[in-house]
Recover the amino acids of this structure.
């Protein structure tokens, strides 16, 4: 059975709190697992969330600030300790190669798993699989940072009424799907395009072109909202977004489900992020991320 969901492992920015671990997010996508920004403590959060090392096929790091990457050492060593039976690919900004190498070999351990390093150096596709294309876009932060976007290929939705109108039934349904035409009736006449699902992951950044490119038409957008709107100057100075800015991006991009995360420890009321997101005009599904929550990708319309 295919599962598409986001497992939130941590939601704090810079400093963890009593209730929020450093960042960490696992996207389950039809048997593939993409681990985004494993901060310190991610390995323990995986245990608490029921996420195994075997669930990880790709690791995607947006940038090399500690709250987004210090958990790499433990996660990589756990992958090897558990002898994950499949290769794992790691994506991260190419400018941080030295940081990745230090974290990968932070202590002694026995390597049992093939870990392929695939640094990101420019906007564009990183991987193409049968079920998705993974792209990266440059963000605006004091250190080089990239966001990630997963796009499912468009498919076809068969229209039973159109099949019946043309007298197509039984084995002929499969035949027209395979061959594209049957007795002069084309597949286009009995089906319509089924838009592929899209997932976007945007961490530490100011507003920039990359943010909008990543968010465009996303079924789910996971995006940082470190600050509340009254602290917009702090957000801009430190390369971050406010709740209102993140929600405005989602509103303009036609996002279906917005997940706000990466909250500054200075705020004690998470509900204020929701209030400001709604005030910005976003009227889709909205989740204020909490550690260990699971958020399903919206069903296709």
């Amino acid at each position: 059975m295919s599962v598409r969901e986001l497992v939130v492992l941590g939601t704090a920015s810079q400093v963890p709190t009593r209730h929020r671990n450093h960042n960490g997010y696992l996207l389950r996508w039809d048997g593939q697992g993409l681990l985004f920004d494993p901060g310190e403590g991610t390995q323990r959060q995986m245990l608490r969330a029921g996420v195994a090392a075997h669930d990880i096929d790709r690791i995607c790091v947006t940038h090399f600030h500690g709250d987004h990457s210090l958990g790499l050492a433990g996660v990589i060593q756990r992958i090897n300790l558990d002898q994950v039976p499949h290769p794992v690919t790691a994506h991260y900004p190419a400018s941080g190669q030295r940081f990745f190498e230090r974290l990968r070999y932070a202590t002694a351990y026995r390597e049992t798993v093939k870990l392929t390093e695939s640094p990101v150096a420019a906007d564009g596709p990183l991987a193409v699989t049968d079920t998705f294309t993974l792209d990266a876009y440059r963000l605006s932060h004091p250190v080089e940072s990239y966001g990630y976007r997963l796009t499912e290929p468009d498919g076809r939705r068969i229209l039973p009424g159109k099949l019946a109108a043309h007298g197509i039934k039984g084995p002929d349904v499969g035949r027209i799907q395979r061959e594209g035409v049957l007795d002069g009736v084309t597949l286009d006449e009995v089906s319509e395009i089924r838009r592929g699902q899209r997932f976007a992951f945007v961490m530490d950044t100011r507003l920039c072109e990359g943010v909008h490119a990543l968010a465009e038409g996303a079924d789910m957008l996971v995006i940082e909202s470190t600050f509340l709107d009254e602290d917009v100057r702090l957000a801009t100075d430190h390369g971050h977004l406010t709740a209102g800015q993140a929600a405005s991006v989602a509103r303009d991009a036609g996002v279906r489900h917005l997940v706000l995360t990466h909250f500054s420890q200075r705020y004690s009321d998470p509900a204020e992020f929701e209030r400001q997101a709604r005030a910005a005009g976003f009227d889709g599904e909205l989740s204020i991320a909490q550690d260990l929550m699971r958020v399903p990708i919206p069903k296709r319309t």
The longest strand covers residues 4-10. The two ends are 20 Å apart (CA to CA).
